[in-house]
């Protein structure tokens, strides 16, 4: 894909929109909103940790889901990853690529 | 590794602390260094904490007033917004949004993106921003 997974710029790390990818096959993982959310946040945590950051340093998260009717299903998994002082966040329903149900991007403190 | 601190921003008016009141897993805003990042905000009535789902112009005014309160609670203000994102439930409200927008930002407005997406809680509008902290 013609994009960077993440860019470090000064004090910040900008992570591209991440969709659920099966780590074994490298293909998109199509699951429930809960399963995709879990896979995505696990992947974002790994990306941030590889740059010396972490989910605890996330500043702003944008969540796109295919239907806002799934808002609570996303939230119940999401809150497990941010137990304290969660980042600022916006959640909207939008059309996503490749049949994904969830896509998440974030800005974190480096 | 950055040495900047990361602190949670909360509104002075507890009725506008939507994430705490509804037990949602986000903070109203985060300050890092010289910047404030606010979560998407909707038209919440500051007196009751309930949704103000009236005419779109009033929803937008209410949301921007709430955003002003949130920023002022952290020592910033609407005038210090750098980038704002306005999400409408219906892009047909774009012209009406611009009319209200001009009331709040008559000169030197911030950078802005507007689009229509599905929103939570029946909101007609949701607005987020990045602002200078001081």
Dominant shape of chain A: globular
Q: What is the C-level CATH assignment of chain B?
A: Alpha Beta
Instruction: Please provide the ordered H/E string of secondary-structure elements of chain B.
Output: EHEEHEHEE
**Which class best fits the helix and strand makeup of chain A?**
alpha+beta
Shape of chain B: globular
Question: What is the gyration radius of chain B calculated from CA atoms?
Answer: 14 Å
Placed side by side, the strands forming the largest sheet of chain B appear as: 1-2-3-6-4-5
How much helix is in the residues of chain B?
10-25%
Main beta-sheet strand count, sense and barrel state of chain B: 6 strands, mixed
SS elements, strand count of chain B: 6
Largest sheet of chain A: 5 strands, mixed
- Identify the most extensive interface between protein chains: A-B, 30 and 28 residues
Q: What is the count of DSSP helices of chain A, taking H or I runs of 4+ residues?
A: 2
| Mean pLDDT reading of chain B | 97
> What number of structural domains do the residues of chain A give?
1
Tell me the CATH topology of chain A.
60s Ribosomal Protein L30, Chain: A
- Give the CATH level 1 class of chain A: Alpha Beta
Question: Any idea what the CATH superfamily of chain B is called?
Answer: RutC-like
Q: End-to-end distance of chain A, in Å?
A: 24 Å
CATH architecture assignment of chain B:
2-Layer Sandwich
Domains of chain B (count): 1
């Amino acid at each position: 894909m013609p994009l960077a997974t993440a860019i470090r710029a000064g004090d910040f790390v900008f992570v591209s929109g991440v969709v659920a990818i099966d780590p074994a096959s490298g293909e998109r993982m199509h699951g429930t909103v809960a399963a995709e959310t879990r896979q995505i946040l696990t992947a974002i945590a790994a990306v941030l940790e590889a740059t010396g950051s972490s989910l605890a340093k996330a500043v702003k998260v944008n969540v796109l889901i295919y239907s806002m009717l799934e808002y609570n299903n996303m939230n119940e998994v999401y809150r497990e990853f941010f137990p304290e002082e969660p980042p600022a966040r916006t959640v909207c329903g939008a059309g996503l690529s490749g049949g994904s149900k969830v896509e998440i991007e974030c800005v974190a403190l480096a | 590794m950055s040495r900047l601190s990361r602190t949670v921003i909360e509104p002075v008016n507890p009725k506008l602390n939507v994430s705490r009141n509804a037990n949602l897993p986000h903070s109203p805003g985060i300050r890092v260094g010289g910047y404030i990042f606010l979560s998407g905000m909707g038209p919440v009535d500051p007196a009751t904490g309930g949704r103000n789902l009236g005419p779109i112009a009033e929803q937008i005014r209410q949301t921007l007033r709430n955003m002003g309160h949130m920023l002022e609670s952290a020592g910033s203000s609407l005038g210090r917004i750098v980038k704002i994102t306005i999400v409408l439930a219906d892009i047909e409200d774009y012209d009406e949004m611009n009319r209200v927008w001009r009331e709040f930002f008559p000169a030197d407005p911030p950078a802005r993106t507007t689009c229509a997406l599905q929103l939570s809680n029946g909101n007609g509008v949701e607005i987020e921003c990045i602002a200078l902290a001081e």
